[in-house]
Automatic annotation (TrEMBL):
Organism domain of life: Bacteria
Topology within the bilayer: Multi-pass membrane protein
Subcellular location: Cell membrane; Membrane
Any one cellular-component term (Gene Ontology): plasma membrane
InterPro entries for this protein: TM_pro_TauE-like, TSUP/Inactive_protease-like
Entry keyword annotation includes Repeat: no
Membrane-spanning ranges: 7-28, 34-54, 75-94, 109-131, 152-183, 219-238, 245-262
The name this protein goes by in its record: Probable membrane transporter protein
Listed PANTHER family: MEMBRANE TRANSPORTER PROTEIN MJ0441-RELATED, MEMBRANE TRANSPORTER PROTEIN YJNA-RELATED
Keywords of this entry: Cell membrane, Membrane, Transmembrane, Transmembrane helix
Record organism: Pannus brasiliensis CCIBt3594
Length: 265
């Protein structure tokens, strides 16, 4: 494996994560599978550990910039953390099942989740660009001061946490869509809140993957070496650069990656 190339590519992924809050696992896991020929189970486990620290660094930066809604992070995390643990239990079941070859099944599962997540996020972005008035008829904003609002947030967090625990995908992408739809955060707070909740979720999921033995530290370290400075650069740029054009490019890339995962699995 070319570890220097892995570090360079991870630097650019880190910029995307810091700038938009999306694209970390969605890009790194397929990159490990396709570019570096890493088995899917090892790619998922190593990526979760690498992405966890990446998101922690990004969340600290956004906390300094005061671009985090902590109440939203709290109630989503209450659901997402146990949801991710259930996803890990499912992952372990398939890992030891004699009826499933997880290294063949997992890329297809990742591709399907990635395609759905990207399609929903891209549609939402296009609607906001082409029909700005449609925002006026969007779903009502969740009120976290009410029991029903908190319950819905916990359930949403649990569902998405399960997907993250199983595939490592959507800790940023799908949560970002939920934050836009149900919490209607402004662009900067959306990114900071998304990265902050992902840091909690991925830290807990990382512990599970360490226990499952699916983490390869020779992969994790080069990712950290490249991605951590990239996240800091991206978080800084988040204050100044428009993200719509970049998001459209990312979504196009993610669709092509997810389609390839579905075709080759």
């Amino acid at each position: 494996m070319d570890y220097s190339l892995l570090a360079v590519l991870s630097f650019f992924v880190g910029i995307i994560v810091g700038l938009t809050g999306i694209g970390g696992a969605s890009l790194i896991t397929p990159m490990l599978i396709f570019v570096f020929q890493v088995p899917a189970t090892t790619a998922v486990g190593s990526d979760v550990v690498a992405a966890g620290l990446m998101k922690v660094v990004g969340s600290v930066r956004h906390w300094q910039q005061k671009t985090i809604e902590f109440a939203v992070v709290k109630w989503l995390a209450i659901g997402s953390v146990p949801g991710s643990l259930l996803g890990l239990v499912t992952f372990r079941y398939f890992q030891h099942s004699v009826f499933w070859d997880l290294d063949r099944v997992l890329p297809r599962a990742i591709g399907l989740v990635l395609l759905i997540v990207t399609a929903l996020a891209a549609i939402d972005l296009l609607i906001s660009l082409l029909f700005p008035s449609a925002r006026s008829i969007s779903l009502p904003k969740l009120n976290l001061d009410t029991r029903s609002g908190r319950t819905i947030a916990i359930v949403l967090g649990a569902i998405l946490g399960y997907l993250v625990g199983l595939t490592s995908i959507s800790s940023g992408s799908l949560f970002a869509l939920v934050l836009m739809t149900f919490f209607q955060l402004d662009a900067r707070k959306l990114v900071g809140t998304d990265i902050s909740q992902a840091s909690i979720l991925l830290t807990c999921t990382s512990i599970g993957h360490l226990g499952l033995g699916t983490v390869d530290w020779s992969i994790v370290l080069p990712i950290w070496l490249g991605a951590l400075p990239g996240v800091l650069v991206g978080a800084r740029l988040c204050q100044f650069l428009p993200k719509n054009a970049l998001q459209i490019l990312i979504y196009g890339l993610l669709v092509s990656v997810s389609w390839r995962l579905l075709q080759t699995a």
